[in-house]
Amino acid sequence: MDGFLKTDGSVGSPVALSGYQKAAILLGEIGADCGVLSRLGLTPEQTKKLNKAFLSLGHYNPYNKFQANREIQVLEETMNNLSFAYSQVEKKKSSELQNKVMMEPEQVADVLKMWLRD
Predict the structure, then answer these.
(1) Are 72 and 7 in contact (CB under 8 A)?
(2) Where are the beta strands (DSSP E) in 1-70?
(3) H or E segment at 54?
């Protein structure tokens, strides 16, 4: 199934990520203008740490297995925390997650706040 990323737990060993790196990956996927970022009320120090996390992750290449697995790990954790059931994410249709984020921005903000405590 070309173009699909399976999220059935077969993506390999979990990658150790800080909460800020998880938040950066999620915000990179859903977009910073999704209505969630404004609900976080980040301090200048948190904003600085989040920007540093974005930079530490480097340019995202969806064809790089390590980077794709890292993204899937974060998306799975997000979906588990939001109680959204899904079995796969179609790469070309990340709008599905974005639509869910638009419907539940407070829940997504709560997940990000949890990660930013790390």
Answers:
(1) yes
(2) 4-6
(3) helix 44-57
